[in-house]
Design goal:
By secondary structure, this protein is an alpha/beta fold. Helix 7 links the parallel strand 9 and strand 10.
Length: about 280
């Protein structure tokens, strides 16, 4: 008998009712300011996940035992950024209303705003932990406020001061860093201080957003805005796993893989392994 070919991230094939975490893709890159292509990231991650194992020797856990549903990619409206963000927000809200944790895979980093709007509506006291090479704190980029270069500023518009903690940041204009110094907490270049932040956020809702270009382009070249001087794969793996294990995560995302800039497939494999470790660490 022939069966339907339903492509999901490996091991994430539970039904909605039995899932604790619901993944979905947000293939959108309409505001990318340098090299486009992140719209293909979520599909590539899903396909290439079958090139790695479901079992993690780092955590001695297996996705086969997890309660995760992958409901596939959204069909987003290109050419209308606000409408696309609204589609993401509605999908996230439906997952939250079902008592599940939404796990979005981008896509460019602006997609975080759509998911975060829904999370903020349900958890207005939510904090953000942000891993990235870029501060993403511009008020606007070339006159546009809805840009991947402005996404954390748009999130700050909702949260206000003292709610955003950034790590790995090594790029931004002078005004971004100046503005950020008064409104968010930024750790440049690495993850030092992460444990102290997690300790201070115990029992508080946390949204976790990971821009994969926090990794150095020598190990992760498949991204639209590569920035030399980043962390290693293992540094990101350990830090992301720590956040997922220790924080009270109410929503999260991984974004900014542009798979065609790395023909070797290593960047996509790295993204798959980071997501695997995050999913497993979320299983408390």
């Amino acid at each position: 008998m022939l069966n339907k070919n339903i492509e999901v991230f490996m091991g994430c094939d539970k039904e909605f009712q039995e899932a604790d975490i619901v993944m979905f893709g947000a293939p959108f890159d309409s505001t990318t300011s340098f090299r486009p292509g992140t719209r293909f990231g979520s599909g590539a991650i899903r396909r290439e996940s079958y090139g790695i194992e479901m079992y993690s020797p780092y955590q001695d856990r297996d996705l086969e035992d997890s309660a995760v549903m992958d409901c596939g990619d959204l069909e987003l409206c290109f050419g209308n950024t606000e409408k696309a963000l609204k589609q993401i927000e509605e999908q996230t809200k439906e997952i939250l209303d079902g008592g599940k944790i939404p796990f979005m895979v981008g896509g460019e980093h602006l997609v975080t705003l759509g998911a975060f709007r829904a999370v903020f509506e349900k958890y207005p006291e939510v904090f953000i932990i942000h891993f990235d090479a870029h501060a993403d704190l511009r008020e606007d980029y070339l006159g546009e406020q809805l840009s991947h270069a402005c996404v954390l500023h748009r999130c700050w518009d909702l949260t206000g001061d003292g709610k955003i903690f950034q790590f790995g940041i090594r790029s931004g204009d002078r005004e971004e860093f100046k503005w950020g110094g008064s409104h968010v907490t930024t750790r440049k270049f690495d993850f030092q201080g992460l444990d102290q932040v997690l300790e201070s956020l115990k029992g508080k809702p946390v949204y976790f957003t990971v821009d994969l270009d926090v990794m150095d382009p020598s190990v992760f070249p498949g991204t639209g805005t590569p920035e030399p001087g980043g962390v290693t794969f293992d540094q990101l793996r350990q830090a992301a796993e720590t956040v997922c294990r220790k924080a009270d995560i109410v929503g999260l995302d991984v974004n900014e893989l542009s798979p065609h800039y790395d023909a070797s497939g290593v960047s996509t494999a790295a993204a798959c392994k980071i997501i695997r470790e995050m999913l497993l660490a979320l299983q408390k």
